[in-house]
Amino acid sequence: MECKKGFEMVQGLECIEGEWIYQTPICKPTEAKDCGSKPLDVIFVVDQSASVGPDNFSKMINSIVEFTSSSLVVDPTTVNVGFIAVAFRSIDVIHLLNDQNDVLKEIGLFEMDQGSSVTFKDSFNEAIYDFNENGRSEVPNVMILLAGGKSTDNPQPNANVAKESGVDIFTIGIGQSVDKAELREMASVPSKARFVDTFDEIGEALDDLLNDLC
């Protein structure tokens, strides 16, 4: 497995116990995109409900890993990355990390804890906690929420609290089961909500966010 021209393999992450931990090689640019001028604390929130399913969940994970490795400069002074996976009565957290290899390994190895439905409400509370406890006070806080279904509760009050605390919220709706109005309302402004038809298009949506992030 090789990287395309202009990229190189992230060292030490290709194999674990003889098996590839990603569907594609994880590559980083030999010359990183200029996100270094704007340090960020970024938390990805993903839907791990039955409406997503294991195969599509893996596509979400791979898209986040590829985006993080190729488009974000993860280090103590630039971008720090966290991860939250949510379903009904289930929330799993990887707190903000400042080492790219650690981020790619922790997210890439994450296993789906599937729930019957999804509730986004608690993800906002958890993100605020992580930003406060593990984030940097002088750095903008960004939350990128990926949804494959509609929330079974009302997440808006919690989303509003996150916005009022200074969190910049982007949402990505995938497929036909999402509530577009809900995702536009959860986003900081409606224009920060993106929608794609399939899980294969998540990478394109994340790339589209890059100009807003950088």
Provide keyphrases for this structure.
6 helices; Rossmann fold; VWFA domain-containing protein; 10 strands; two-stranded antiparallel sheet; vWFA_dom_sf
Which class of secondary structure composition applies to the elements? alpha/beta
Number of strands: 10
CATH architecture: 3-Layer(aba) Sandwich
The low-pLDDT segments are 11-24
What CATH calls the topology is: Rossmann fold
Organism: Lottia gigantea (Giant owl limpet)
InterPro entries: ECM_Assembly_Org (IPR050525), Sushi_SCR_CCP_dom (IPR000436), VWF_A (IPR002035), vWFA_dom_sf (IPR036465)
Keywords: Disulfide bond, Sushi
Domain VWFA: 41-213
Notes on the protein architecture:
The chain has 214 residues and is an alpha/beta fold. It has a single domain, classed as 3-Layer(aba) Sandwich (Rossmann fold). The protein has helices at 53-71, 100-108, 121-134, 156-164, 180-186, 202-213, and strands spanning 7-9, 15-16, 19-20, 27-29, 40-47, 79-87, 90-97, 141-147, 167-174, 193-196. The strands form three sheets. It has a six-stranded mixed beta sheet with strand order 7-6-5-8-9-10, with helices on both faces. A two-stranded antiparallel ribbon has the order 1-4. The chain has a two-stranded antiparallel sheet with strand order 2-3. β8, α4 (156-164) and β9 form a beta-alpha-beta unit. α1 (53-71) runs parallel beside α6 and α3 runs parallel beside α4. It is globular. This is VWFA domain-containing protein. Residues 41-213 form the VWFA domain. InterPro entries: ECM_Assembly_Org (IPR050525), Sushi_SCR_CCP_dom (IPR000436), VWF_A (IPR002035), vWFA_dom_sf (IPR036465). Keywords: Disulfide bond, Sushi.
